[in-house]
Amino acid sequence: MDIKEILEKESFSKEDIVFLLSSVGRDRTILFKKSAEVREKYIGNKVWFRGLIEFSNVCGKDCFYCGIRKGNKNLTRYNLSDDEILSAARFAYENRYGSIALQSGELESSVVANRIENLLHSIKELSDGKLGVTLSVGEQEPEVYRRWFDAGAHRYLLRVESTNRDLYRKIHPDNKKHDFQRRLDCLTNLQEIGYQTGTGVMIGLPFQTIDDLAGDLIFMRDFNIDMCGMGPYIEHADTPLIRYASSLLPLNERFDLTLKMIAVLRILMKDINIVAATALQAIDPIGREKAIKIGANILMPNITPGKYRNNYKLYDNKPCTDDSPEDCQSCLEARISLADAEVIYGEWGDSKHYEKRRRDTGA
Ligand code: SAM
């Protein structure tokens, strides 16, 4: 196969995607050049911030890969007060971040539903309706998603983690709380309610193949997602998957594969928002900048109050856990200009794909 011929096609087959994800040397350079061109043409060299508030590490789930899983007793659980969350949101607003992202472990209860609904109203009030809000708080009932949407959340990030059902089963407990079909149903509900809907996968999981990853990209295209946040899987010592650590791809290969996933997705879905995931920086100090160069356009500076950050360790060596929000901003700005891109302040930076999808479907 010739990479240039593949890249000229209107639509890629699974084999084409496997070929692109396996590219090395000159082919890899051609792939990255193409994805950078697509990014420049459809998005411009622009980056938007989502100030990330990891407001609680309390989680009701037991995912085998995750450091904040319910079964991990080796960490202190925290839950920010409403005042702490609102002052982080105010920091984002005053520093002209267009949006924030509220993320936490996964809990389903009326207390959580009411709390988030009230917080959304307060965030809209303190920012005069100007701060965009992404939620990433897991699987919930459609009625809860609807209430949060009505209260002002307009984007939702729910990673599908892997679209290979067998692999999904291997990395989660086999019970109703960790059901693949429910994950898919939640994504459908989010899209139907009207959220800009984001998903993503981990790259380099034990048992995962290039074929699985190609399937993940095809899922994202066919599901018509608006946003994607995907990153390398990084092992955590206090999780069940640690027993497979010796079978994993080396970290630099997981990193490289993540860049290729971003590049291919940018070519497949030209106008979606793609996050340069923090996990990339855990492997390479300028990992996120590399992702921006080849296709990503969203960064999530961590604005969680510093004293809590050490306890939101999803994986080992999570970066920036000792920084303050101010440190994050100046550091990121310098880094982004290195990637020849520009931070756009005071704008939501909505997914263009979403706008087009809504126009096309009349929804
Ligand atoms: N519980 C919410 C949800 O599922 O949408 C959000 C919080 S969850 C901790 C955020 C993401 O962290 C997960 O979707 C997963 O992809 C990622 N994550 C967890 N453990 C990880 C690991 N060991 N390496 C890389 N990413 C990981």
List keywords for this structure.
nine-stranded parallel β-sheet, two-stranded parallel sheet, alpha/beta, single chain, binds S-adenosylmethionine, 363 residues
Topology summary:
Elements: H1 3-8, H2 14-21, H3 25-42, E1 46-56, H4 82-94, E2 99-104, H5 110-126, E3 132-136, H6 142-150, E4 155-157, H7 165-170, H8 180-193, E5 196-199, E6 202-203, H9 210-223, E7 227-228, E8 231-232, H10 251-268, E9 273-274, H11 278-283, H12 287-293, E10 298-299, H13 306-309, H14 325-338, E11 342-343, H15 352-361
Parallel strand pairs: 1-2, 1-10, 1-11, 2-3, 3-4, 4-5, 5-7, 6-8, 7-9
Helix pairs in contact: 2-9, 3-10, 4-5, 6-8, 9-10
The protein binds S-adenosylmethionine.
S-adenosylmethionine binds next to loops.
Chain-averaged pLDDT: 95
Number of strands: 11
User: What is the succession of H and E elements?
Assistant: HHHEHEHEHEHHEEHEEHEHHEHHEH
> Major beta sheet, specifics?
9 strands, parallel
> What distance separates the N and C termini?
41 Å
Shape: globular
Q: Can you tell me the residue ranges where pLDDT is under 50 for at least 5 consecutive residues? A: none
Identify every distinct bound molecule in the structure, by name, code or SMILES: S-adenosylmethionine
Helix content: 40-55%
Q: Whole-number radius of gyration?
A: 19 Å
Structural class: alpha/beta
What is the beta-strand fraction? 5-15%
Annotation field: number of helices: 15
